[in-house]
Design a protein that fits this description.
By secondary structure, this protein is mainly β. The protein folds into two domains: 89 residues, Chitinase A, domain 3 (Roll); 49 residues, Thrombin, subunit H (Beta Barrel). Helix content is 9%, strand content 36%. A hairpin with a 5-residue loop joins strand 6 and strand 7. The C terminus is likely disordered.
């Protein structure tokens, strides 16, 4: 079966950003399953996958704009240290989940910890980066109503790859 806009897909992927940096940071490919068209992957990535079949491999080059957008300095802000639990050990790189004004889950990364303020970043961790994605198609099938229902409850995110411990970063 070829990947279509309504497919449920399982792939192994490894993202390269420049010479040294990879995601996952281990440099080992990671598996992810998702429904096409629900925003789990950047549109440019999904377009490149249309027509692939189980066992196919492909390398996709995405500009920052095609991938997770340009880095937006307005999404970096200072918040009082008091906004976090006093016993919480804050350090750069930690990912937290909060809600936006519409009650949807949004994620931010701790950039810097000062005495009384914390600098946090709501940009996607891969924002502003050109990506080279190596992928291998593990499985392709038609998305079931259960697959699609899961998306409605997760605001279009099916990822298991973001952050530590199953938290999401987009």
């Amino acid at each position: 079966m070829k990947i279509e806009k309504s497919s449920f897909v399982t792939i192994d992927y490894l993202i390269r950003m420049g010479e040294q940096e990879t995601y996952p940071p281990s440099g080992q490919p990671e598996e992810i399953s998702f429904c096409m068209g629900w925003g789990a992957m950047p549109p440019g990535m999904e377009e490149a996958m249309i027509g692939l079949e189980q066992g196919d491999q492909k390398v996709v080059h995405l500009s920052a704009e095609q991938a997770y957008g340009e880095f937006d300095q307005e999404l970096v802000m200072e918040v009082p240290r008091a906004d976090f639990a006093p016993d919480l050990e804050l350090k750069p790189g930690l990912v937290f989940e909060t809600e936006n004004d519409e009650g949807q889950a949004v994620y931010f990364i701790v950039q810097e910890v000062k005495d009384d303020v914390v600098i946090i970043d709501f940009n996607h961790p891969l924002a502003g980066k050109d990506l080279e994605v190596t992928l291998s198609v593990r499985q392709v099938r038609e998305a079931t109503p259960e697959d699609l229902a899961g998306h409605e409850s997760q605001e279009g995110c099916s990822c298991s790859h973001c952050g530590e411990g199953g938290s999401h970063s987009h």
